Amino acid sequence: MVSEIALTVNHSAGLHARPAASFVKTAKQFTSTITVAHNGKEANAKSILTVLSLGVDQGAHITI
Predict the structure, then answer these.
(1) Which of 20, 27, 31, 59 could be stapled to 45 by a disulfide with Cβ–Cβ 3.0 to 4.6 Å?
(2) What residues are labeled active site?
(3) In angstroms, rounded to a whole number, what is the distance separating the alpha carbons of residues 1 and 63?
(4) What is the pLDDT of residues 1-49, one digit of tens each?
(5) Do residues 12 and 60 lie in contact, with contact meaning Cβ atoms separated by under 8 Å?
C-alpha cells in the first residue's frame, strides 16, 4: 500500500540540522520505505544527508 501526504514546513529553520535529525529519527522507527519529495527531487527519509540535500526552507511544500 502506498500512501502520501503533502504538507508545508512551518519551522523557522525549515528541514535543516535539528529538525531534519528529528524527522529522520522518527522515520527510522518504521520498517517501510519512506521518501520525501521537494521541487522534483526525492530523498530517503531515513538518511540525514539526503534529507538535507533537498534544501527545504520554511514555507516549502513537501510530500512524504
Answers:
(1) 27
(2) 16
(3) 16
(4) 789 999 999 999 999 999 999 999 999 999 999 999 999 999 999 999 9
(5) no
